[in-house]
């Protein structure tokens, strides 16, 4: 059994990790930390886990994290990098759901997150946690910086158009003029008291935010450059808050090049993702809905070419707490420990 600890088990990604790992046949959860809830049984805070998790929250100092095989950080930015050296020295593998090990440029990290990176030498070896793109590197990793929710949807939506293995080196789209119009449910803001996510504020409402620049923008651009194998990427990314609890819907617009005008994009996407257990390329003409992936680790994508013109419209949906966060974390855990990638992640989406 893989002994797993969770640092920061009281937020939405933390409880989602608990839900998924409690059903994982090869995992034993040995520690769950929370300074504010130390001593409280997990099932008292999350009644949905009654009979499934028989642990109490403990402080990070009392939790025996160095005795784990792997530790998840479901914490604010900056926490994982503060504990990384000690855990790695003890042979513990790290999976961070925050941004500490996502951006490889420490200056860019400081600019967007307001923190100086405390362990750039560990950042240099960290692997970006997007299995469909970095599967082989994740298998060998000691540290995985898990992809963000928006970045997962945008990168997987565009990967077939940019990847050298699918394009043969051709530029199918103008990578300097990509637009992603992305929407998220309120759980993406975390489990905290904030005016903008109060029921009376978010319900029966729809709004854009962070149009000048969202902290996921550099992460997405970094990932798209790696997928494309060049730096000629320009992205306009506009996030929106929708009045739902779970879900990401990204509508992505890409302008075709002259070479790209003759490609069968439905076939391209189907071929690119044919062996991916968690990416479902929908039939031509489909419009995937967020409720079709709620509670599952699946991502659904549909590609459209309106009027057979020069613009592709890619529609991507995922559950921001599962494929956009904790489910993807479990997917990476499986890879790091040599397990089938789908282990513990075969839950069917909840409907309605």
Automatic annotation (TrEMBL):
Cellular localization per UniProt: Cytoplasm
InterPro entries: AGPR, AGPR_AS, AGPR_dimerisation_dom, AGPR_type-1, NAD(P)-bd_dom_sf, Semialdehyde_DH_NAD-bd
Semialdehyde dehydrogenase NAD-binding domain: residues covered: 3-141
SMART domains recorded: Semialdhyde_dh
Listed GO MF terms: N-acetyl-gamma-glutamyl-phosphate reductase activity; NAD binding; NADP+ binding
Active site (catalytic residues): 149
Protein EC: 1.2.1.38
Alphabetical UniProt keywords: Amino-acid biosynthesis, Arginine biosynthesis, Cytoplasm, NADP, Oxidoreductase
GO cellular component labels: cytoplasm
Pathway: Amino-acid biosynthesis; L-arginine biosynthesis; N(2)-acetyl-L-ornithine from L-glutamate: step 3/4
Catalysis performed (reactions): N-acetyl-L-glutamate 5-semialdehyde + phosphate + NADP(+) = N-acetyl-L-glutamyl 5-phosphate + NADPH + H(+)
Gene Ontology terms: biological process: L-arginine biosynthetic process
Family label: Belongs to the NAGSA dehydrogenase family. Type 1 subfamily.
HAMAP family documented for this protein: ArgC_type1 (MF_00150)
NCBIfam families on file: argC
Job of this protein: Catalyzes the NADPH-dependent reduction of N-acetyl-5-glutamyl phosphate to yield N-acetyl-L-glutamate 5-semialdehyde.
Name of protein: N-acetyl-gamma-glutamyl-phosphate reductase
Lineage: Bacteria, Pseudomonadati, Pseudomonadota, Betaproteobacteria, Burkholderiales
Gene: argC
């Amino acid at each position: 059994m893989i002994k797993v600890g969770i640092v920061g088990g009281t937020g939405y990604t933390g409880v989602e990790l608990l839900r998924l790992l409690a059903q994982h046949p090869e995992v034993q959860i040995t520690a769950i930390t929370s300074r504010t809830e130390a001593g409280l049984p997990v099932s008292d805070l999350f009644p949905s886990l009654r009979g499934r998790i028989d642990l109490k929250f403990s402080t990070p100092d009392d939790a025996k994290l160095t005795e784990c095989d792997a530790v998840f950080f479901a914490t604010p930015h900056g926490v994982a990098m503060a504990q990384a050296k000690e855990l790695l020295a003890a042979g513990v593998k790290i999976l961070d759901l925050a941004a500490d090990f996502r951006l490889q440029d420490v200056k860019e990290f400081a600019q967007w997150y307001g923190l100086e990176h405390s362990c750039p030498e560990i950042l240099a070896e960290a692997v970006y946690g997007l299995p469909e793109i970095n599967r082989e590197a994740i298998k060998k990793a000691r540290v995985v910086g898990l992809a963000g929710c928006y970045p997962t949807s945008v990168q997987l939506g565009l990967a077939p158009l940019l990847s050298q293995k699918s394009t043969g080196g051709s530029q199918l789209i103008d990578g300097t003029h990509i637009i992603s119009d992305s929407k998220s449910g309120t759980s993406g803001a975390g489990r905290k008291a904030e005016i903008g996510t109060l029921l009376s504020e978010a319900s029966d409402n729809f709004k854009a935010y962070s149009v000048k620049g969202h902290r996921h923008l550099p992460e997405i651009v970094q990932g798209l450059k790696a997928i494309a194998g060049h730096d000629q990427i320009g992205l306009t990314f506009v996030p929106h808050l929708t009045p739902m609890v779970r879900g990401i819907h990204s509508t992505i617009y890409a302008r075709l090049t002259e070479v790209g005008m003759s490609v069968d994009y439905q076939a391209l996407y189907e071929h690119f993702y044919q062996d991916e257990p968690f990416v479902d390329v929908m039939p031509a003409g489909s419009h995937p809905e967020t409720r079709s992936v709620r509670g599952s680790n699946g991502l659904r994508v549909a590609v459209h070419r309106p009027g057979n013109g020069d613009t592709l419209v890619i529609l991507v949906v995922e559950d921001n707490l599962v494929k956009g966060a904790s489910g993807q974390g479990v997917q990476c855990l499986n890879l790091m420990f040599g397990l089938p990638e789908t282990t513990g992640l075969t839950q069917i989406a909840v409907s309605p």
